[in-house]
UniProtKB/TrEMBL annotation:
InterPro entries: RmlC-like_jellyroll, RmlC_Cupin_sf, UGlyAH_Cupin_dom. The lineage of its organism: Bacteria, Pseudomonadati, Pseudomonadota, Gammaproteobacteria, Pseudomonadales. Coiled coil: none annotated. Residues 46-113 form the (S)-ureidoglycine aminohydrolase cupin domain. SUPFAM superfamilies: RmlC-like cupins. CDD domains: cupin_TM1112-like. It comes from Ventosimonas gracilis. This is Cupin.
């Protein structure tokens, strides 16, 4: 039997309480929140919505790969040892397992993510 996991109305979904990001860089400490976070045990995945206010932070290395779809806002992500990449509303991206780098959130960013 398959398990269908759904994120509903991601662009307008109510988010959990915003908290300071775990790895801030610089004086501005961005707040971030999760929404509709779900673990899908049978395929070892996690999905949800992540929202972050402007600021700069180090990306926490994940043992999983990640797929994202930016719903609103924009940022610059600089993978460690690589060139910066601008990501805007409507963009999708994948991150390899253990990817490290720096997020520079320019305008409050909301993304749907899947760690797999």
């Amino acid at each position: 039997m398959s398990q269908l996991t759904v994120i509903r109305s991601a662009a307008t979904a109510i988010m959990d309480k915003a908290e300071p990001v775990k790895n801030p860089l610089g004086e501005t400490i961005a707040l971030s929140a999760l929404g509709q976070f779900q673990t899908v045990d049978n395929i070892n995945a996690q999905i949800g919505i992540w929202q972050c206010e402007p600021g700069k932070l180090r990306r926490q290395p994940q043992p999983h790969r990640e797929f994202i779809h930016i719903l609103s806002g924009w940022c610059i992500f600089t993978p460690e040892g690589e060139e910066p990449v601008e990501l805007h509303a409507g963009d999708c991206a994948t991150f390899p397992a253990n990817c490290q780098g720096v997020w520079e959130i320019k305008e409050t960013l909301r993304k749907v993510f899947c760690l797999f």
